[in-house]
Amino acid sequence: MKSQTKKTKKGKQNEQQRHRKLEKKRLKRQNKKYKPERYLSRNQKEVAQRLIDGEVTMISSASWGFVERFLVFLNRLGFFELIRVDGVRFYRQMIDIGLLIMTYEIKVLLGIASMNQVGERLFKDVALMRLIGYTSDQLLSGFCHRGRAESDKPIHKNTLGDAVEKLTPEELDLIFNEALKRLAEHGFFERSGGVFALDSTDLPSTERYEGAGRRTKIIKKKTRDKQVVEIEETVHGFKLCALYEMQSRLVVAVKITPIQQHDSTFTLDLVQQARDNLGNDSIDILIADRGFLDGEDLWTLKHVWGIDFIVPAKTNMRVTAEARSFAQTPADGDSVFVAHRAGDEQQRGEVQLRGIRSLRAYDQYGDAQHQKQIDTRRFKPNPINALLIQSWNGRIPKEETVFLTSLPIVDPLWVLDTYGLRTLIENCLFRELKQGWNLLAFPKKTQDAVRGHVYLTLLVFNLSNAYRTHTGQDLTAQGIRRQRRDWHQANQVFVFAGEYYAIFDLEELLIFLDREPEICWRIDPDRVRREYGLLDQEWVA
Description:
Blueprint: H1 2-30, E1 41-42, H2 44-52, E2 58-61, H3 66-77, H4 79-82, H5 97-109, H6 118-123, H7 126-132, H8 136-141, H9 157-166, H10 169-185, E3 195-205, E4 213-222, E5 228-245, E6 250-258, H11 267-278, E7 285-288, H12 295-303, E8 308-312, H13 318-324, E9 336-341, E10 351-359, H14 368-372, E11 384-392, E12 401-405, H15 412-420, H16 423-436, H17 447-470, H18 475-478, H19 480-488, E13 492-497, E14 500-505, H20 506-512, H21 525-531
Parallel strand pairs: 1-14, 3-7, 7-8
Antiparallel strand pairs: 2-13, 3-5, 4-5, 5-6, 8-12, 9-10, 10-11, 11-12, 13-14
Helix pairs in contact: 5-9, 5-17, 9-17, 10-11, 10-17
């Protein structure tokens, strides 16, 4: 009985594989290509004339009018070609995968956190769906009638969540990395100072998430009677490791792992991924948290790839004790350099530090062959430089903070200021993603869904920032939430007339309908008449 059950399961699997192969061949013959502009084109004057003649198909608010310009930018970037993935996990491809990906990207861009809100806030906006690439027939009848309710037009919300889950890690890597290569080709990293930050952040979930990791650590808490106690805290979830370019504020490499995996295991993979995307000479300085401290990795960065680094040392390391032993050593201009910066009246910004050259107590700093000789007589440690922070904001710590670096420490303040840029990845990336881009609003409780959501969120985050930079406006400085408030205050409408669409100000619309307001605050009526050739035209009220 058991062998018969196994044969039945195997037969079903073979049938599914055969069906997938036939479906891929059919799609290849059709040469399907997703491109939003294939249905509609923008023509302001033609739509204005049709509006006057009463030949309007549909009108809609343009509170999301930025999407139209954003799609044009994506088209010039060649983005729609990148999302034409094979979809090896999509057994029945009734909907273009590129269209599903673009729909989810717009969902993230509009700030729709819950999948339950997709039907009301996204699918009900027919004009926006038309602009993305849905046809009128698809919006009215949907893609499939099997088991569909009236609320499933054009697709059910679960279909969108399932699509994110079905994207493989290879397909997500391909889309994300190729998009970065396109940005690099168009010069978005030309002003890069070569400083990149490497950091990670937790993506907490519950233990019910399929594939979620588990990490237990000891934390200290104060009781009501101010006693310090140690308790165990267990966290379930995943971890996002990202490499961040400081000038453009773009994520250039990413890794999603279970939450318990150590940061240092991904340092070289992330750096190599960024080098592949931007070029081998793109990274000059890497600043990272102490979680990425690994002697062999640091040696590879400096002596194989030519990348300098700045990373904090751990308190219990021998090299930390060696650096602190120079706390009272006078500056000699050769091995010890002293620097001081005065703060304001409240001592904010005050810092006193020392740069120490060629410390020898970091035995792990070297290649793999070097590591094998640590316990031998012929072992010679490699030198490394360090910064010793002796006072900060007017306060002298009990134990000085030590930074390890391969940079020259002749100017210790410059090295410290360079490391200070690392706060940007915490505030302008991780905090902004979690608070403004709903990074933790996963569509389903599986590892694949979490990975797909994070990758697509980072992708639209990168493209949005690049788009705003291209148009001369810095989206990162304003933040996505403030920018969305500005977008929703627009006094514009979308007008659809057959195969054309246009965007008009409300005052323009009233002029076309021969209902010109007595006072026009935003537009010049005479300019509108000249632009659309309406000066000598008789209007029918």
